[in-house]
Specification:
seven-stranded mixed β-sheet, five-stranded mixed β-sheet, 515 residues, Nucleotidyltransferase, domain 5
């Protein structure tokens, strides 16, 4: 396909470990891409930070590389998505004044307790639509105010990941509703604005928070300084952009209620668009980057469990994989595929890192139940695949119990390559999956938003023409019936062990001794 008459759109995604930028034609052709990495700084066991200027330098390098590769001189529009929620304070000079506090950072447990005591979970969740947890932006902002008072006094704006890059490109301090929604409890989910009531109690002045706009709205142009540093033309429009999770959902064409996206990586995320806001704090609730749509999502520890299995128990399979030139997970899949549903009575709770949605239990841990001398390593691996499937189904069950039917799931990322795992998940849920091997992810969603903002596209549904046909996995009815019994037991096991998880934590961390 020739590019001579095309218009070009750039999408930039600021990820947790790298920044990726892609240049697309207005017909959906990927023209050029670039990725540059950086490092998370774990300054304490539960603290995770990054230098926002590492994001900025990676962005400039990506843009420079793309312009050189593509030889394109005229870009119609740019959108930036990014990791969220986090905390990036800047001073009056526009400089970042401390490292960014990342979404995985857990330092604000004390601030969460303060919020529950001073405002109350019921009130916070009624306004924000979300839990009180260190994951969200609000507790991070509060920690910053309470623990870095001198820096807080110098702060003129508190931005989030992609907001900082947009600011450096345009001089505008803005954010969108998908990002703001995960800054609970500072955000009023129903009114789609910062909550004056909550922010006043937290002593976070609202004028420190970014101005909110639609994700596709043109909010400025490339500044003269940014033009010199990137090679982009000074008049190039920039739209607000959004959260990486929401732009990734758009990037796989998941827009309508009843559709869902399963991102099977180290974390397992199920994202579902809605026509109206959902107030159920077992899940994460915010706005979609598609105007008029909302987004509810569940996130569990998924592929990380399989990585643990591979690294701890899979030395033989690693050697075999190297010898045969096959991925180690394919060998593990082949072994597990010969076993029956339910792994001959072996069940895994995959809560290796505690869990967020939907149980919100930091004390939960991984458990194998039912192991006997008959069970093999292959049984344990299949039980892990099934256990993660049960945990994902718990998220789907909550949504369907609220009257929202999920008709189909788009499966993406590394874990979705497994035909066996896709079948297991579909059988557990009773829902078809469409595996999309090649997806543009968040940068593609960004490009769509830029195209809407600049008037090239009427709405976001144009993305569906750009996505390649996927591989369909239909649930097998008899398997689904069998799995329901195991799933119900899975839920019961967690409830039975819940208090024991807390007791174990106390023994390990407070030196308590058993009799």
């Amino acid at each position: 396909m020739g590019l001579g008459s095309s218009s070009f759109l750039m999408g930039i995604d600021i990820g947790t470990s790298s920044t990726k930028a892609c240049l697309y034609s207005d017909e959906g052709q990927l023209v050029a891409s670039a990725t540059h990495e950086y490092t998370i700084n774990y300054v304490k066991p539960t603290w995770a930070e990054e230098n926002p200027n590492d994001w900025l330098n990676a962005t400039f390098k990506c843009i420079d590389e793309i312009l050189k590769k593509s030889k394109v001189t005229e870009i119609i529009g740019i959108s930036v998505s990014g990791l969220t929620p986090n905390c990036v304070p800047i001073d009056e000079t526009g400089s970042s004044i401390r490292p960014a506090i990342l979404w995985i950072d857990r330092r604000s447990e004390a601030e969460c307790t303060w919020l529950k005591n001073e405002i109350g979970l019921e009130k916070c969740s009624k306004i924000s639509g979300n839990q009180i947890d260190p994951y969200f932006g609000g507790p991070k902002f509060l920690w910053f105010r309470r623990n870095n008072p001198n820096l807080f006094a110098k702060t003129t704006k508190i931005l989030l990941g992609s907001n900082y890059i947009v600011f450096k490109l345009t001089g505008k301090t803005v954010s969108d509703y998908s990002v703001a929604g995960l800054c609970a409890p500072c955000y009023d989910y129903k009114k789609k604005q910062w909550s004056e009531e909550i922010c006043e109690v937290m002593q976070i002045p609202i004028d420190l928070l970014p101005e909110l706009h639609n994700s596709h709205e043109v909010i400025g142009e490339i500044s003269e300084e940014a033009s010199k540093k990137t090679g982009l033309k000074k008049v190039t429009p920039v739209v607000t952009g959004g959260g990486d999770f929401a732009c990734s959902t758009l990037g796989v064409g998941v827009i309508e209620e009843g559709e869902a996206c399963a991102m099977l990586g180290t974390a397992g995320n199920i994202l579902m668009p809605l026509n109206s806001p959902l107030f159920d704090i077992r899940l994460l609730n915010t706005s979609h980057v598609v105007q008029g749509k909302y987004l509810t999502l569940g996130s569990i520890y998924a592929g990380g469990v399989l990585q643990w299995f591979r690294d701890t128990l899979g030395d033989f399979e690693k050697s075999e994989a190297e010898e045969k030139g096959k991925p180690v997970y394919r060998i593990l899949d082949e072994q597990a595929s010969n076993l029956p549903i339910g792994s001959d009575g072996l069940i895994l709770l995959p809560y290796f890192m505690g869990e967020r949605t939907p149980i919100w239990d930091v004390y939960a841990r991984g458990v194998y139940l039912g192991i006997t001398p008959f069970h093999s390593k292959a049984h344990m691996y299949r039980a892990a695949l099934e256990g993660i499937g049960y945990a994902l189904n718990h998220i789907i069950e909550i949504v369907t119990s609220l009257g929202i039917a999920v008709r189909e799931i788009a499966a993406v990322n590394g874990g979705a390559k497994s035909k066996l795992w896709r079948q297991i998940i579909s059988d557990i849920m009773g829902i078809p999956q469409i595996y999309i091997a090649e997806t543009g992810g968040a940068p593609l969603g960004d490009a769509i938003l830029a195209g809407i903002g600049c008037g090239i596209f009427q709405d976001a549904r144009v993305v569906k023409k750009w996505i390649p046909e996927g591989v369909r996995t239909d649930p097998i009815t008899k398997n689904h019936v069998k799995y329901q019994k195991y799933y119900n037991l899975f839920r019961k096991i967690y409830e039975t062990l819940k208090e024991s998880f807390l007791e174990l934590f106390k023994i390990v961390n407070r030196g308590e001794k058993s009799d």
